[in-house]
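Hello again, I could really use a second opinion on something today. I've been puzzling over a protein and I'd love to understand its fold better. I'm sending you its amino acid sequence along with the backbone structure tokens. It would help a lot if you went through both lines with me. I've dropped the whole record in just underneath, so have a look.
***
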Amino acid sequence: MTTQTTPQRPPHLKTAPDDEAYWLAIRATMEPMYVNTQLVNTRRGAAPRLVRDRVRELVDLSLAYELDEYEPMRDLKESGSSLAIRQLLGDYFGADADEMALTRNAMEGIATVLNGVALKPGDEVLATRFCYDSNLAILRQRALREGIVLRFVELPFGIASDEAILAAFAAAITERTRLISFPHVVANTGLVMPVRQIAALARARGAFTLVDGAHSAGHIAFRLDELGCDAYATCLHKWMYGPRGTGFLHVRREKIADVWPLFASWSGKPADSIEKFEEVGTVFKALPASIPEAIAFNRGIGQAEKSARLRFLRDRWAGRLREHERIRLLTDIDADPGTGFGGFVIDGLEGEDFARTLREDFAINVRAFAMDEDPAMRGIHLSPGLPNTVEEVDRFVEATFAILARSHNSLMRAG
């Protein structure tokens, strides 16, 4: 007879990551909508019901009100921002409100900095092959237009130590390096970059650091004032489960004046004002006006609890798969901090074939990937989110083993 045990809650968490009854209740508040079991959540998260209801409540108001003295959203600027919203974001992420600018997505903040840091011909920008292609497109445009030089930091693909990563950055920086751009979390493998150490190294060598935080905000616990990077840009619709079309740009107070805004300030904001980055024209105010509900949702769960749950779901599948002789993990599941992301490769089976079979035969969605900058960097990616359940993850593991057994039998017959 099997004895059922009550999940034990780690002492620093108010809710255990394996308290399935609790997390099923959270799923019920999010009401995810997918046909196949969705185990890839890097593009967007399911906004909880209270955020969706708030957006719906504000839609007609946002489309119909007149700009007069009775404007119902008078506390929001034309950009949708307000001091109260910037303060909420600053409190959650560990920064002052006067270092936080509201944006419409991570790309807007990234484009602001990559285009806004003053560079001259011959100046070097360091990036990684793990940066999004859209980020690199901006730098390549500047290289064509202005004669700057884009160089890559050569980093290991998959598992890498902080020491190895830092050594690679140190070796790549030259006396011409002016800007360094890299992701906080590598999307395909879940590698967490040692931001604080890289930022300290860059500062000592006179370079500006921009961190792409699209996959760290709301995913892992951190404070911006401890990371020490000069700028950090992210969205709120992925791991913060906020309304799509919202994000923020953080710039350290003493560096704000060094970055030109994407749009020239028409209200005369001084060069050292974070609000100069918010003058982007009219936005749909129902979206930023719903940010307080998203913050409340995340605070109600707790960032530490969210992070622990996401890691628990990853470890549940990755811990079993790494024991299989044909599977090589691209993710160090013992690393701290870790994410809910994971990647792996299968010996003798293409990632696209595996993902297609998983979807068509088992109604489970994962993603086969190849890095844009180096297609040899290939694998299979999973990123379960808060709406995912233990049952879904376990079903994925069993389906994977079934596919591997089929593949083994086919190889044996072919041999």
The chain is about 35% helix and 15% strand. The chain has two domains: 20-46+303-414, 53-297.
